[in-house]
Amino acid sequence: MNRMHFLKAGSLAGAATFLGTNTAFAKNLADNSIDKLVDANGNYIQPALSYSESFLEPYMDAETMHLHYTFHHGGAVKGANKDLQMIKKGLDDNNLETVDFWTKKLSYHFSSHILHSIFWTNLINKKTEPSGDLLKRIEKNFGSKERLKSLISETFKNVDGNGWHRGLSTLQR
Ligand SMILES: [Fe+2]
Questions:
Q1: CA 138 / ligand 1 centre spacing (Å)
Q2: Which residues are within 5 Å of ligand 1 (an ion), measured at CB?
Q3: Distance 50 CA to ligand 1 centre (A)
Q4: SS3 for 59?
Q5: Could you identify which of 35, 85, 95, 117 might form a hypothetical disulfide with 30, taking C-beta atoms 3.0 to 4.6 angstroms apart as the criterion?
Q6: What pTM does this model have?
Q7: CB of 42 within 8 A of CB of 118?
């Protein structure tokens, strides 16, 4: 299989096969009815939120939720669909420079699609603290939850789309 065949097969497979079916994340997505990152045709889709945009108040206001859902997540899904079309066109035109360019764009948009999908299914509207097995695992692997928060905050500063760092800081208050 040469590079073009690999890219073509990979892009046609779409995101549906990107995630394992037996992971906690996949189960979470399925349980929360937001398991469809792509439709039957392989186009990226944005499922409706399973709660209102004011659900997270006072921790996150409805305007911020609207911004993240409509513009960040929605923009990422639209962008990913355009990127995929441009990759297919580049492959049809045998233009691998174009394929490389749009594959980088797709990587950014698709990761935003996944991260926002995780975001919507991991939030509740009351403050909670890790407990039980989760707390034990945090303490075993990171020393303490405070150290884990610190590591996440420091690491996210250098990540593309590091608004996630600011979002996490907001939720920690
Ligand atoms: Fe966002």
A1: 26
A2: 68, 72
A3: 17
A4: coil
A5: 35
A6: 0.66
A7: no
